[in-house]
């Protein structure tokens, strides 16, 4: 009878944490992409690839990943004050109401799963976890002993898969177009993770004006499918 080693279990836990079947409502968000398609900023496969690559290489790499690292390290050190600081930093960095509401909604959904996973935490930590999804993601990754590099890779992959699927549905594109976009972007992930996890505190942050404008306009878009 074969037993599952710790490293194998950690890898399986990561797959669970980034699974699109996790009831966080990730499928309900396009992060401004729905408006970008509506206004013909993103019209085809090439446009969607450019949109996705740009966000991966900028805000995801220079904001989300270094903050994931600091949130994870705060869990390692049991430093609630630092955990709260970086959690609020992320929330303040989300540039529109929709993007902030997405973070909070997904965070609360993840927090509701903790008892089901038999992950115990006190009220003070739970309050911070409910601020944004990235905080809860870091907390669970640390609890399950998923390494920070693997957690960062999983986080980028989950975002990439969700945004690509949204684009394929909205434009619309064929499934093979989506697979070509995933293939082109996934090859960049190792280098982006290396860059994101090497940022100093003063280097953290990035503005994405096109996404912010699209997200803001999406808030009043008359006909829409996605919540952001």
From TrEMBL:
* Domain of life, source organism: Bacteria
Q: What is the lineage of its organism?
A: Bacteria, Pseudomonadati, Pseudomonadota, Gammaproteobacteria, Chromatiales
Q: Principal place where this protein is found?
A: cytoplasm
Query: What protein family does this chain belong to?
Result: Belongs to the UreF family.
Alphabetically, the GO molecular function entries are: nickel cation binding
> What is the protein's quaternary organization?
UreD, UreF and UreG form a complex that acts as a GTP-hydrolysis-dependent molecular chaperone, activating the urease apoprotein by helping to assemble the nickel containing metallocenter of UreC. The UreE protein probably delivers the nickel.
Entry keyword annotation includes Secreted: no
Name used for this protein in its record: Urease accessory protein UreF
- Function of the molecule: Required for maturation of urease via the functional incorporation of the urease nickel metallocenter.
The entry's localization annotation reads:
Cytoplasm
Entry annotated with the keyword Cytoplasm: yes
One Gene Ontology cellular component: cytoplasm
Which key words tag this protein in UniProt?
Chaperone, Cytoplasm, Nickel insertion
- InterPro entries associated with the record: UreF (IPR002639), UreF_sf (IPR038277)
What's the source species for this entry?
A: Candidatus Thiodiazotropha endoloripes
């Amino acid at each position: 009878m074969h037993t599952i080693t710790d490293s194998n279990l950690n890898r399986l836990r990561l797959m669970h944490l980034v699974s699109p079947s996790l009831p966080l409502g990730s499928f309900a968000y396009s992060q401004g992409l729905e408006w970008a398609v509506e206004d013909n900023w993103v019209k085809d496969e090439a446009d969607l690839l450019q949109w996705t690559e740009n966000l991966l290489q900028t805000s995801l790499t220079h904001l989300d990943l270094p903050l994931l690292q600091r949130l994870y390290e705060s869990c390692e050190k049991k430093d609630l004050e630092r955990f709260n600081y970086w959690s609020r930093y992320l929330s303040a960095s989300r540039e529109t109401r929709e993007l902030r509401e997405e973070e909070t909604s997904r965070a609360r959904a993840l927090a509701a799963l903790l008892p089901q996973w038999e992950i115990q935490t006190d009220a003070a930590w739970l309050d911070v976890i409910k601020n944004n999804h990235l905080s809860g993601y870091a907390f669970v990754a640390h609890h399950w002993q998923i390494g920070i590099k693997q957690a960062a890779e999983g986080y980028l992959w989950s975002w990439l898969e969700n945004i690509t699927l949204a684009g394929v549905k909205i434009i619309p594109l064929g499934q093979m177009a989506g697979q070509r976009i995933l293939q082109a972007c996934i090859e960049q992930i190792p280098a982006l993770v290396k860059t994101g996890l090497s940022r100093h505190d003063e280097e953290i942050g990035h503005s994405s004006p096109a996404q912010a404008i699209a997200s803001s306009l999406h808030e009043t878009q008359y006909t829409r499918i996605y919540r952001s």
